[in-house]
Amino acid sequence: MNPYPTDHYRSLRIALLGAGSVGSQVARLLLEHRDELAARVGAPLELVGIGVRDVAAKRDVELPAELLTDDLGTLVASADIVVELLGGIEPARSLLLDALAAGADVVTANKALIAAHGPELFQAAETVGAQVNYEAAVGGAIPIIRPLEQSLAGDRVMRVMGIVNGTTNFILDRMHTEGSTLEEALAVATELGYAEADPTADIEGFDAASKATILASLAFHTVVPVEVVHRQGITGVTDAMVEQAERNDRVLKLVAICERLEGEGGEAVSARVHPVSLPATHPLAAVREAKNAIFVTAESAGDLMFYGAGAGGPETASAVLGDLVSIARRHVLGGPGAAASTHADLPIAPFGDVLARHELALTVADRSGVLAGVAGLFAEHGVSVESVRQDPADGEASLVLGTHTASEARIAAVLDALEAHPDVERIDSVIRLID
Ligand SMILES: NC(=O)c1ccc[n+]([C@@H]2O[C@H](COP(=O)([O-])OP(=O)(O)OC[C@H]3O[C@@H](n4cnc5c(N)ncnc54)[C@H](O)[C@@H]3O)[C@@H](O)[C@H]2O)c1
Ligand SMILES: N[C@@H](CCO)C(=O)O
Ligand code: NA
Question: Is the pLDDT of residue 335 over 90?
Fold first, then answer.
């Protein structure tokens, strides 16, 4: 007996766009696991073409030459399902809009595109009853889109916090454990296929901000444009900050935080990306190398944690294949897929309303009265100081001040006042503390 009874349904035509770190792995898995995937779907998944820039280019993963084409437009027009793994906005956006207009479904790992043009793509899909799946866009292999979109659809998500960029986590981890420089660690992360084509997207926090947009939009049923995500990358993280964190049994991590805030005007939502200093015992501190972890706090479910490979070719291909099988089954079985919703339409809180504890390292003149003057600036702006440490050295002193919880607006005002203070030689670092 045929163990794969798929004859009753015609093949589904799959067009793959891009054969880089992720695309080449998706192609390999589609071809190697053809029979098993057909059994799961109930129909064969036929890879009809792979869109590349240069069909003659040398590749790490060998792909059948007859499938390669540089005519992506024609390839898209022939497909039931288009898998986009090019990255970037154009031509990915136009190709996917063309695919959707023709009634094809779409799978993508492109968080930059979903963050910037998700609503446009979802609308185009809804118009024709097609689907856009993007599990690989956040947390790579980790299931996080589907849990937010479906598993938690009946709950009220309060907060999502996580390490969502593998490259910067890898870099910070290497800075802590091996004393590597940012540049050295980035070169290794690029070699391992974690970094974006332009790694500025990783180290300046753009990639994490795209992911924060996607997470916040799903969690709060509200379009949270990427432009409103407060973003700070890791280029300002210095060896001294790493050492300072280690002296206090802490670890520096780049995190994305999405949460509901209760402001004067009622409920609002906030999404932001910046480095934080975490106690070494915090669960996120244990997230090493290029791994990702996302904490979700929901009203009824409580705390949930999702952990795993946030980057890497084969790992990310796993999520892409999962999306593909899910969409393909819908073709075979019929029925609409689950879609994201934006009905709540909550206001976006200004970054200044966000509350956090901060640790500031300053170099000040080593004279009597300086500490009192500096402390006075905090009091003047309503920021309460929790701890002070002073290390004298050659006429100047290094001051490390920890604050109680204060709004970002108040901290910004303190920083301005410190900049202008004659006894403050420089502000060496500012880091937000997480308990
Ligand atoms: N690498 C990862 O770990 C990872 C994880 C999650 C999501 N993603 C996302 O997956 C997508 C692909 O990432 P990647 O790491 O495989 O990138 P990559 O740079 O390795 O591969 C992209 C490929 O697309 C090709 N390409 C780009 N524009 C093209 C065009 N106009 N015509 C033909 N080919 C074109 C490039 O030549 C390259 O081979 C991106 O959106 C990325 O953000 C990557
Ligand atoms: N460049 C991304 C790939 C995964 O989205 C990262 O380092 O996390
Ligand atoms: Na994922």
Answer: no
> Quick one: 303 and 327 in the same domain?
no
**Prediction ipTM score:** 0.99
- Residue ranges of E strands in 335-422: 355-365, 385-393, 396-403, 406-407
pTM: 0.92
Q: What's residue 2's pLDDT?
A: 46
The domain of 183 spans 145-310
> Looking at the DSSP assignment, which residues form a beta bridge with residue 81?
14, 105
Which residue among 17, 55, 86 has the greatest number of ligand 1 atoms within 8 angstroms of its CB, and so is best to mutate? 86
Q: What pLDDT digit, counting tens, does each position of 52-62 carry?
A: 999 999 998 99
Residue 25 has phi, psi (to 5 degrees) of: -75, -35
Q: Does the C-beta of 139 come closer than 6 Å to ligand 1?
A: no
Q: Which tokens hold the place of 110? A: 């492109």
Ligand 1 close to Cβ of residue 110 (< 6 A): yes
* Same domain, yes or no: 32 and 137: yes
Q: How many CB atoms lie within 10 A of CB 241?
A: 20
Residue with tokens 């005519």: 71
Give the residue ranges of the annotated binding site.
Answer: 17-24, 111, 196
Pairing mode, strands 230-231 and 81-84: unpaired
